[in-house]
C-alpha cells in the first residue's frame, strides 16, 4: 500500500437534499435589502436557560454581506448542523453509557487542554433555548446526531427509553417550530463496550449498528423525514485508525481499511432496516469529499492525484453507488489487505442498496504532487488543514452528479473556525464567516444552475462546540457560546444568515 504510507495524510478528509431543483430557474435578480431585524424576543422568563440568550440588535452588526442577488430555488432547505458528542454534554444523564470519545478525551494528552465533551454546549439541557434560536434565525432544516450510547448504553440490547425520550422531545420541538429534523445515526460516538470487543475492526459491530438503527427507527422513524447513516466514514478511517488523533487513537492502516468496509456494511444494513419498517422517510450516507487536483500538469502528478482521489472520494462513493471498490485503491492496498480479505459474498449488494440522497460535506481541496505529497495553494482558516477555496464546492457537487447520477444532494456541513470574541458591546463580529458562507453558497448556486439536484445546505455549525482533538479552542458556530456561563450570542453571521433565509437569496 505504497501511497498510504508515503502520502501526507490530510488531517481532515472533506465531503457533500429533494430532487426538484435541477434546472431550476435561478434568476439573478437584485434582492431587496433586508429591513431592520424583526426577530421575536426569545427570552422566556420561565426558562432560566432562555434568559441567558443575547440576541443583540442586528443593526449593530457591521454589514459585511455584500448582496450578490442570487436567488435559490423555492423551498430550499436552509439549515445548520451539530453532532451529539460535540454539543450535548450531560455525559452521565438518563442512563447514557460511555463512548469511545469519552475514553479518548479523558486520556491525558489527547485533546487540546484536556477538554472533554462532558458539558460541551450543554445542549441536552438547553435544547429549548437552542430550538428557539433556530426558529429566530429562520432555519428550515436542522441536522443533529443521535448518541448511540444514550440509546444502547452498552451498544446492544433493549433501548434505554430515557435516551430515546430526549430525541423525541428534540424532534417534537423542531416540528413545533416548523423546522425539518435530519438525524444522523452515527457521528463517531461508538459505545465503549463495543470498542472493547474490537470496535469497527469487528464485523459484528456493523450488525450491532443495524439493531441500534432499528430501535431508533421504531421510536422516531415517522417523525424524521431524512436519516443519515454514518458521518464521514473517511474521518474514522484516517483520523481514528491511521493518524490516530481521533478516537480510538490507532495507527494501523491495514486495520483502517477493514474499518472502512465495516462502516460501509453498517450503512447498508441500516438502509435495509429502514426499508423493512415500511417507512417513507429518506436515507443516505454523509460523506466528506475533497476535490483532488494535480499540483501541476505532469503525468506523474495527474496519476498521483487520481489515486489520491481514490482514497479520499471513490473509496466511499463507489461501494454505495456502484457496488464495487475502486480497482486502483484495491490494487494499491494489495491482495492480502484486511480490506480485500474482509469483503464477504453479498456485502457489496447490501452496501449498494439504493439510497434516497447523498449528504456531502465540503471543507477543503487537496493539491497532489508527482510524488503523492500535498501542497497548499490557498489561505487556510484557523484550522490549518482547511484551505479556503469556494470553487471546490462547485467542483465536488458537479462531479458527484456527473459520476454517480442525479441522486438528490444535501450539503450537510460547510463552514470554518474563526477567532471569535465577545466585544464590549455584547456582539461577536465574524465577518470572515459571512464572506466564507456567501462565497460557498455562490458556488453552490452555480452548481444548481449547472443541474446539480441540491436541495438543502447546512452550516457547520449551529453552535460553537467541542471540536474533537481541538477541544473548545476552535469556534465553528453561527452562535457564540460563552462556555463559563453557557450564554448564547448570535454572531454577525447568524444575523446575516437570517436575512439570507428570509430573502431565499445571497
Ligand atoms: C467534520 C465533522 C464535524 C466537525 C467538522 C469541523 O469533519 O463531521 O463533526 O468536526 O468537521
TrEMBL record:
- Region spans: Disordered: 1-73, 89-117
Give the E.C. number(s). 3.2.1.21
Catalysed reaction(s) here are:
Hydrolysis of terminal, non-reducing beta-D-glucosyl residues with release of beta-D-glucose
Gene Ontology MF terms:
beta-glucosidase activity
In this chain, composition skew of type Basic residues spans 1-13
Pfam families named in the record: Glyco_hydro_1 (PF00232)
Spell out the InterPro entries in the cross-references.
GH, GH_1_N_CS, Glyco_hydro_1, Glyco_hydro_1_beta-glucosidase, TAT_signal
What Gene3D superfamilies does this protein map onto? Answer: Glycosidases
Q: Which UniProt keywords apply?
A: Carbohydrate metabolism, Cellulose degradation, Glycosidase, Hydrolase, Polysaccharide degradation
Q: For bias kind Basic and acidic residues, which ranges apply?
A: 58-68, 90-99
Hydrolase is among the record's keywords: yes
SUPFAM superfamilies for the chain: (Trans)glycosidases
| Compositionally skewed regions (Low complexity) per UniProt | 14-53
Q: Which family does it belong to?
A: Belongs to the glycosyl hydrolase 1 family.
Could you tell me what this protein is called? Beta-glucosidase
- Organism field: Micromonospora cathayae
